[in-house]
TrEMBL record:
Pfam families reported for this sequence: Peripla_BP_6
Domain of life: Bacteria
Protein name: Branched-chain amino acid transport system substrate-binding protein
Keyword Metal-binding in record: no
PANTHER family referenced in this protein's UniProt entry, alphabetically: BLR6548 PROTEIN
Family designation: Belongs to the leucine-binding protein family.
Gene3D superfamilies: 3.40.50.2300
Record bears the keyword tRNA processing: no
């Protein structure tokens, strides 16, 4: 449904008076008065808000297609039972880019210009988001809580309409580096990484974090998302005789690397897999017996962890997933990720000074200790002027039996390592 000014109720007219009114669709706004004069209200009325998401529902990263199922379940739940966000029912339009940046640009244009969404909520992947953020910022369309941990979403100052959500890859790398400094201070590390901004960001952050220590990167191999297999790279890495393997991959290649590690005779390194490929859906096809002791990190609750069996938010999530997404498995962590991200958007939108695109842009950059119940205890949303990283706390975990087990304490990387500078 396209939004028009015709037929808006008295409630919307009150919002117009306070926050600047609806625009005419050309991005200039039509407000006559108020502190939000001229701000954009395309895609939002007093009764509805329309969001667009872009995901690889097909292609080499299609495992991430589970994320929007969790998001939609959350929005369906609050629409039916909580009267939406501030009385506005949420319509969430999902497009498939196949993990192809040119397709992501095409879908972003379709969502903004044809669907006339209020905001892009979650564009997944560093390549796809990089391809679209010039366009969204030129159009002054919020591109909020993008599903990628690239550090530039928080450090870049020329794209104020785009912001990440999950811990950035440099901060995640710092956590692994700190772990090795303590547990294997003379570690020899072999690295497999995706040959794009995602892989290079995490690898670069790791190298900077181990500078001045005895932890050394002794071998590196990259892969392309179009590669059919990473077996040749894994054989080359095994020849390095490294005692740590840092696996910087997306789900398809994460599974391949875990399987190859288990098969290579005579090589038994400590295996660290980055968070974005640590889902149970990545590990299960490899065989749980082959991934025992693998290390990763997280920041949100695992639906498979009995620690949260009686947790109020986890019980609500599982109940509502069954009710609003009956064909989806609530134990898939990507669904949980989506639920947590949607709840984060809900809180940011409620905190906006005005129900406008500018109001949302400013709200997501002024989050102060916002609690999201699906995040781990101690993990909150925090942003400020000069700090565009909502989540920078993580906890290490290791795979035991048929699930991940958290260990140690939640690590606030802001406090432990200082502010991220890129």
């Amino acid at each position: 449904m396209r939004v028009s000014a015709i037929g808006c109720s008295a409630l919307l007219l009150l919002a117009v008076a306070a926050c600047g009114g609806r625009d005419s669709g050309n991005g200039t706004g039509t407000a006559a008065s108020g502190k939000c004069q001229g701000q954009q209200t395309t895609g939002i009325t007093d009764k509805s808000i329309k969001l667009g998401g872009i995901y690889p529902l097909s292609g080499p990263a299609s495992a991430y297609g589970d994320i929007p199922k969790g998001i939609k379940a959350y929005f369906d739940y609050i629409n039916a039972e909580k009267n939406g966000i501030g009385g506005r029912k949420v319509e969430f339009v999902v497009r498939d880019d196949g993990y192809q940046p040119p397709k992501a640009v095409e879908e972003a244009r379709r969502l903004v210009e044809q669907e006339q969404v209020f905001a892009l909520f979650q564009t997944l992947g560093t390549p796809s988001t990089t391809a679209t953020w010039d366009y969204t910022n030129q159009r002054k369309v919020p591109q909020v809580f993008v599903a990628t941990g690239a550090s530039k979403w928080g450090s870049d100052t020329t794209h104020p309409w785009t912001i990440g959500w999950q811990p950035n890859y440099v901060s995640e790398a710092r956590v692994y580096a700190q772990y090795l400094k303590q547990e294997k201070p003379e570690a020899k590390v072999a690295v497999l990484f995706q040959n794009d901004d995602f892989g290079k960001d995490l690898l670069g952050g790791f190298k900077r974090a181990i500078e001045g220590t005895q932890v050394k990167v002794v071998a590196e191999q990259s892969y392309e998302v179009t590669d059919p297999s990473i077996d040749p790279q894994m054989r080359n890495l095994a020849e390095s005789e490294a005692d740590v393997f840092l696996n910087i991959t997306t789900p398809k290649f994460g599974s391949q690397a875990l399987a190859a590690d288990a098969k290579i005779s005579g090589w038994n390194p400590l295996h660290i897999v980055n968070n974005v490929a640590a889902s149970i859906t990545v590990l299960k096809p490899v065989g749980f017996e082959n991934v025992q002791g693998v290390v990763s990190s997280s920041y949100y609750k695992d639906p498979n962890d009995p620690t949260w069996a009686n947790d109020a938010e986890m019980m609500l999530y599982k109940q509502k997933m069954q009710q609003y997404a009956p064909g989806a498995d609530a134990n898939v962590p990507y669904h949980t990720f989506g639920w947590a991200a949607a709840n984060s958007f809900h809180k940011a939108m409620e905190a906006a000074a005005c129900p406008t695109r500018e109001g949302l842009r400013d709200s997501v950059r002024d989050l102060k200790g916002v609690k999201v119940d699906m995040l781990l205890p101690g993990v909150t949303l925090d942003t400020a002027r000069g700090d565009g990283f909502p989540i920078e706390s993580m906890q290490l975990m290791t795979f035991k039996g048929e699930r991940w087990e958290l260990f140690g304490q939640v690590i606030d990387t802001r406090k432990e390592f200082g502010p991220l500078t890129g």
